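Protocol step 4 of 6.
Sequence for Phosphate transport system protein (Methanobrevibacter gottschalkii DSM 11977) entered exactly as in the expression construct, tag removed. Do not edit the line below.
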Amino acid sequence: MSKKDKTLKDILDIILYDNPSTQDEIAVKLGITRRYVTQLLQPLVKDGTVKRAYMIDLKSYEKVAESLSDYAGSNETKGNVIVNDMIANMARHVHSQIEVSFDAVLEYDEEKANKALEMDYATNNMVEKIRTSVETIVSMNKHSEISKSMLYNELAYDLERIGDYCGHIAKFVINDVYEIDENVLKKLKKMYKIAQKMIRLAITSFIEGKTELKDDLMELEESIHILQTKAINLIAEQMAENSFDEKERSNYFIYLFRVVKAFERMGDISVEMMDVSIEFHENIPRSTTPRNFR
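Step 5 output, structure tokens:
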């Protein structure tokens, strides 16, 4: 996506989600000139996509959004471009939230840890916006498949859960006074990278209809579980070498276990999102048996 298209997309997002009253307000939010806002919006105002009061015609917006999207989209999801865009934006936000929370651990930076926790408020708001948008789509299109539309809500909820686990990672820095052992940290770095890849694969599968990505995802799931076991074993060895009379040290191990578990759960949730994608695109219902018992 070119820089110009990216800026136009940001302008449309602000109009869609923030309801600005003037072009000046849009310009201030994006840190660009009002003249540049006018220049980019002028063609869309002329063709009726953007109204003078800075409202968007949703049908026209779908065509514009498709041309600016990072994802190709599939025939099945074409009718819900706006919600796809919201899901993609939420996924990008959650990726950033994971990055900030883990950077806080790597740098032992309490300020970044607090920022990661603050980002969770935006994550929660995005879930609500997606939910209300899905309700609007269902009410506007009486022929829509309600069960399929509800899968958008499930995906958003899964991303919200991942955001919650970011909080476990960030709180390690806020609650603890010890830095992580280098050997454990190496395992966590690998788990972090794998978790990010798994989320990306699941979201790409849903938005672009690439359900064949499940094989790659399952390989990564196996890797993250192996790393989890190794990390837990290392922590257990350290616990055996320390006295439990030290309350702070005991808390350190508890919080560290939560960090390891957070990355493992992100991987599991990614698999659940992939299952949602397969149900959406291939009409294959998900198993009702918990994954641990399959």
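Step 6, annotate. Residues 71-79 have pLDDT under 50 and may be disordered.
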